[in-house]
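Dear colleagues,

As part of the handover before I leave the project, I'm documenting each prediction I ran so the next person doesn't have to rerun anything. This entry is a single chain, and its sequence is reproduced below.
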Amino acid sequence: MEIPVSAAKAQLTELLRRAEAGEEVILTRHGHPAGKIVPFRRRLRGEELLRAIEEIQRSAAKKMVPGPDAAHSQDFLYDEFGLPK
């Protein structure tokens, strides 16, 4: 959502609610982007940080597609005589 700075002054509370809900709020001045309202994200610490890292690792592991290992990668580049394909 884009909104002029002059109009945003009167709607700040509503714009903050929208940003907290995940909507991107761009403030414009003379039709050009001048700023953005984004939700505040607190920093994770200690156990909470470790849990978040583990969750990201689990999520990434599910998305990984197995491919050739490094020991056999040359098989795709060279023929049986050691010449480039």
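The chain has a mean pLDDT of 87. The longest strand covers residues 32-37.

All the best with the project,
I.
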